[in-house]
Amino acid sequence: MPNAYDLIETTWITLPDGRRLAARMWLPRVQTPVPAILEYLPYRKGDGTAPRDETTHRVFASEGYACIRVDIAGTGDSEGVFDDEYSEQELSDGEAVLAWIAAQDWCDGNIGMIGISWGGFNGLQLAYRRPEALKAVVSVASTADRYADDIHYMGGCLLSDNANWGSQMFAYQSRPANPKNRADWREDWIKRIAEMPFMAADWLRHPTRDDQWKHGSVCEDWSAITAPVLAITGWADAYVNTPSALAANLTAPSKALVGPWEHRYAHIAKLDPADFHGEVLAWFDHHLRAEDNGAQDLPDYRTYMQEHFNPTMQNKPRQGRWVAEAQWPSPNVRDRVMFLGADGLSETVTPGQRVVRNPATLGQAAGYFCAGMRFENELPGDQTADDAMATCFDTGPLAEPLEILGRPRLRVSFSVDRPVAQLVARLCDVSPEGVSQRITYRALNLTHRDSHETPELLVPGQRYEAEIALNECAHHLRAGHQLRLALSTSYWPIVWPAPQAAEVTLHLESSTLTLPERRVTTEIAPQNPGAPRDYPTLKSQVLRPASGTSQTIIREDGTVVLDTFDDYGKAVDPYHGLTVGSHVSMHYAIHPDDPASAVFASDWTFTFEQDAWQVSIDTENKMTCDVENFYLWRKVTAREGADGVEVLVKEWQETIPRGFQ
């Protein structure tokens, strides 16, 4: 029978320096101490993650776990000033939070951390620091390398989501504490806005893999993590490389689980939801309660092997099957080398050259970088139009199925006509009807061909070599389908383009594609999560339903514009009565002949109401560039009361040299 528990809306955790962090807790009504589960985020326990928390922590508490959801310093109701993502302050505070939980009379000293994205990151990062009470981690959609696999850079290329995510955090950090919890909310609100970092600009000032990104990258020393880790993600998510990397490299017990999901916990995913609760509870029951439930015997790598399903940008069920590898790396996966030739991909070397050059608008079928953050129209669609602008290498129709599991590697010998250039590789599954589905992709800034720490400008006409390890994938190509390698010098709007249109010449005799081909005689039981169990949901009063739109237009001069609008709705929380509404519009524009014409802009609005208290926050953001510089601008307007009296208006702007970008 499920345990009864008490919900404590706000309790305070006092840090060693006197600052207080706000926590929401679900405490089982039991006579003996119990293990605890911590989720540690900057997204506001009282409203930001409350709908999701209702679906998770209530379930875990009913199974006898004490659940604690803590706001990072300077966010939500917590005191202090927020400084940066995964900062030393955040992680040292996290250690203090773990020690505080372990010292409570309701905790038996065994703590697990859970989180998706930010919470998945800092769960790994805190495990890296080895606090005594942290005994197990469930890390969802996270990274082991903050430079290589996050929202800022990919292969040394700047991602447009660096500006987009910076604009989102700007809006998030502009929100005030709840007056019911903080009598000083107004003074603190103004201070938060006035002192908040310009994160998009700060991140842009670190275009190489320097100490900014090494901090918090657990790949710096895999052996440092001793707590067992269950790493989970989905193939529609942006964070696909970490679970297999952890399973392959950690010396601590580690298991990888990759489903078809987008950037959400699996039980609330729009793409084939699954029993996330069962996975988490089994992991924590074994590692926090010492239950012999088989969690330690799971295959190293369980994954959903996808197949062609006529892709659209809308959410629709995936096609495929669950498979498992008892060991990772697996003896069932062997390298299969294919050569780039004048006639496509082949098993033999052919000399010659192929030129890669394309309009800056290539990438319109790419979808949103991190699917799951918007409402709809965010998945990669049919790649045919992008393929037509790219330089493609196809196999013939496959005589037998081909199964790929791992990270394909592209090795190219090339010369280029510009000192800064990009190369983007996509693998696609092309059906007999000609529908092209993206399997995986990856971008490389060719000035980073030898090092992400010390890039070097290219000498036009000189011959170089480079390798691109494409993102992790699991894909089954049916007989009769074709495998396509599509190469381009840009991928907008996911990748911010190089300053000038470049032409990359491939020297085919030294260019290869290595596939991690999976061949299995007898499959082991995949032990897939199964369908989601019933779970509670937040019974909010919805005043405005959520919705989203997306529109692409072409201006008279040929500029391609993508405008999106996501209304996150407006609702009243049933526990404390806070009414919250929010929406965001995003704008991307680029001219096909001018990469330096790229524009990103976003505008966020938040409104809060509780009794007679009302505030609203509007944030505006824009990023443009020319050949030499990036230009960033942002503005916040904070208002109070029913009449919307302005409390604070502030603007920031930064000019940052492009350097090797």
UniProtKB/TrEMBL annotation:
SUPFAM superfamilies named in the record: alpha/beta-Hydrolases, Galactose-binding domain-like
The answer to whether the entry has keyword Flavoprotein is no
Q: Which domain of life is it from?
A: Bacteria
What are the record keywords, sorted? Hydrolase
Tell me the GO molecular function terms. Answer: hydrolase activity
Q: Which Pfam families match?
A: Peptidase_S15 (PF02129), PepX_C (PF08530)
Q: Where in the numbering of this chain does the Xaa-Pro dipeptidyl-peptidase C-terminal domain appear?
A: 281-536
Record flagged with keyword Glycoprotein: no
The record ties this protein, via Gene3D superfamilies, to: alpha-amino acid ester hydrolase ( Helical cap domain), alpha/beta hydrolase, Galactose-binding domain-like
What's this protein's name? Answer: CocE/NonD family hydrolase
Give the originating organism. Answer: Pseudophaeobacter arcticus
Q: What is the lineage of its organism?
A: Bacteria, Pseudomonadati, Pseudomonadota, Alphaproteobacteria, Rhodobacterales
